[in-house]
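Moderator note: this is an archived Q&A kept for reference. The question asked for a predicted structure of one protein chain; the sequence and the answer are reproduced below.
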Amino acid sequence: MLRSALSAALRPVCASSHCLTPSFAALDLSRPFAAAAAAQPAAGSDVFHARYGECKKRSIRASPQKLNEICRQIRGLRADDALLQMQFSPKRKARVVGSIVQNAVNLADILCTTHELEPEDLYVVEAYVTKSFTMKKIAYHSKGRNGIKRRRWAHITVKVEEINFEAAVQEAAKIGGRKGERALKKAQDDLDAYRARQAARGEVGGGAPAAPADASAGGGGGGGGRLTG
């Protein structure tokens, strides 16, 4: 009788726990940030929402310390400048890091269907290295001795984000002196070039994208995405 009473008392708890189990069929695994993108305001609002793309390449045959030196070169640069640095860098893995930056730029451009994002519109907001596994081998020494030879592997993650050119002009205006004048001139030139690219793409002035020809065929406009290699 005690066993039946315990089972009857625990049955509602177990039934409610099944209701908390997520249904993976209802999740949009192709765009993990689709819900966040749908919650953003419209493109014509005053709030700036930066679109982004993230790419991660796993198990690269290189030391994390050496790869971190390459990531330090591109961290904070515009995407086109980062690609140029990796193209002419003498580092052995610079081409690999450049391909990761290019993949992040391409992913940001693909997922933001209402806006065409170019490398000039993005900058590298994150570029970091994490450790992977370490392969140990025998290191042969003289007089019959031996040691351990370690072959290290690493992961690289690069995230690019859209530049807010209007905010950059406002921040440059706060800097005084000749340094502030040069920063303000550069920020204003970047803003003019950005507006020229918008006009060439046929977008509405002020940063709002042009209306698509068929609204039912297009997807969500904002947000970003991740790519893992």
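Archived answer notes: The radius of gyration is 25 Å.
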